[in-house]
Backbone:
């Protein structure tokens, strides 16, 4: 059984692909199937270690990105996409997979186009509340469409509704559940103090970093702070935080990290009482941890998807949204932290709503459908 996985350009596309690959490998063993041959097609491997760990062979295919603003790069990327399509058709013909699973994004377009030309069954997954251009196009010939947000289904034609399933977003097993035992000791946290966990993403979020640093003297007087700053921002944040907390008796309560590996991330989630984050695919990790959250969406994300994602999640009662324009008013973030942390019932209700929103079996559901289609195609 051969399965081609595609998508990429960001961790929000790549890591769900890995979650589905994990589930595919597990289901193959569980159902005593011949071990699946997994391939991943994208312009770059993104994380070669995870591809290797999950027995996925990387196949490089160029893909051009269409920007929503004027740029000469759009013109150049037309040729890059054309070359990517030709290369993808050759690679897909050579592999001839039983199914192609597309995670969306510009990187998935060449492989999906090749699948359409060669008549290979396609399954797509949409992470955002508003589908992206690649998935809207691929939905015309996809056999199955999986969505993370139920309202995403409304943006596909009504005639496609019978092939759409609300699955949630696939999450890697290592971070699906928080690790509470030993977390405080590992992260060197005080035993009884509430914990706030700030996730800036792998690249960090400069605005959030600045807000947290400015508020540190007040925050460390009441809370332990775990702060993932992003690798590019770590040294700057660490120096500024040290200056801000100079001679502060609680300065050891601030714990900056450039990046958290899977174990450290799961422990930070286990120890935390409140999470502050952007509004990408991290929303589904926070929901799976059943943690209250404050979301600060990127205002100029493609298609305004972070803002729409955050408000969709907030309607469940699991989070509050603070838009960047509102953060210009002094202390609004601190005030919202104080409001949530000062009300145990509010935190409990938010946690219950997050747990209800999460669909922790998303990877397994999608993987099972991929296998079903692959078996049908192989007949």
Residues:
């Amino acid at each position: 059984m051969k399965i081609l996985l595609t998508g990429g350009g960001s961790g929000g596309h790549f890591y769900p692909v890995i979650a589905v690959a994990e589930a595919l490998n597990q289901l193959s063993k569980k159902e005593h199937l011949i071990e699946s041959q997994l391939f991943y097609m994208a312009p770059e491997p993104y994380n070669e270690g995870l591809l290797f760990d999950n027995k996925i062979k990387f196949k490089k295919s160029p893909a051009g990105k269409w920007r929503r603003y004027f740029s000469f790069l759009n013109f150049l990327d037309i040729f890059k996409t054309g070359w990517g399509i030709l290369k993808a058709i050759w690679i897909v013909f050579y592999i001839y997979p039983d199914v192609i699973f597309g995670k969306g994004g510009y990187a998935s377009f060449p492989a999906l186009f090749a699948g359409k030309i060669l008549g290979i069954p396609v399954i797509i997954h949409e992470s955002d509340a508003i589908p992206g251009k690649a998935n809207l196009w691929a939905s015309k010939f996809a056999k199955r469409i999986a969505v993370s947000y139920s309202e995403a289904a409304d943006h596909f034609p009504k005639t496609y509704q019978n092939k759409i399933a609300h699955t949630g977003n696939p999450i890697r097993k290592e971070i699906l559940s928080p690790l509470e035992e030993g977390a405080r000791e590992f992260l060197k946290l005080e035993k009884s103090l509430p914990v706030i966990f700030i996730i800036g993403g792998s690249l960090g979020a400069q605005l959030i970093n600045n807000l947290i640093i400015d508020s540190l003297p007040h925050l460390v007087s009441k809370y332990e702070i775990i702060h993932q700053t992003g690798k590019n921002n770590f040294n700057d944040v660490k120096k500024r935080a040290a200056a801000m907390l100079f001679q502060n008796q609680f300065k050891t309560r601030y714990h900056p990290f450039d990046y958290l590996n899977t174990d450290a991330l799961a422990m930070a989630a286990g120890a935390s009482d409140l999470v502050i984050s952007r509004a990408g695919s991290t929303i589904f990790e926070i929901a799976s941890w059943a943690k209250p959250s404050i979301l600060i969406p990127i205002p100029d994300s493609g298609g305004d998807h972070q803002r729409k994602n955050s408000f969709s999640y907030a309607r469940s009662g699991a989070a509050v949204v603070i838009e960047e324009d509102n953060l210009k008013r002094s202390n609004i973030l601190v005030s919202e932290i104080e409001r949530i942390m000062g009300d145990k019932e509010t935190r409990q209700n938010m946690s219950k709503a997050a747990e209800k929103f999460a669909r922790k079996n998303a990877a397994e559901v999608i993987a099972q459908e991929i296998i079903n289609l692959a078996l049908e195609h192989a007949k």
User: Anything to note?
Assistant: Residues 216 and 244 are 7 Å apart (CA to CA).
